[in-house]
What does this fold into?
Amino acid sequence: MINITAFIKAFPLAWGAGFLSLILAVAIYFRMGAVEEKRDELFNLEREIGVIQANTREGLSMDDELSIIQDMVDSIDGRLVDESQIAINNGYFYERVADSPVNISDVVQLNTIVEKRRLTPEDIWALNHYSITPFEFQISGLLTDILNFLYDLKRSERLIHIRSFELQLDTQREPGYMLMEIEVNMLGKPILNTAG
It folds into this structure.
């Protein structure tokens, strides 16, 4: 029979290495769950780093894109009607018929339609804070001339929506002439709520 104590004394390094290997194997076995958790954490961190890097790459062009958006908003703001300038607003329609064979009359600016929500001028993202300034007037002329006037009006620099119209024969002029009563909406400047 082999004496274990003598065998350990004969090969102490081998026994120490074997015992250490056994301890390390047990430690690795019991730590395997923690390793899996750390592997999952590492995967999530790498994914977050990828998202941050992508956002950083995309964010580099944000100043240019914001500048483009601001230019668009400024372009729209330059085309808006100011409700307080009634003479200028009404005169706009008379200017449109200056070179047209149609006659325009009874231009009236109606009360501005305001949104319930009030925003500050810095809020360029919510386009629904613009007001709507309605107008009504009459146009008289040949039907084709009236339609051409309406086409030109829709293509003008103002942002206009034709709300309603009524077409009838113009009894004040020679046969073939029509009279159109029309209501249009023009996009107006924001009405800001200063009372909070």
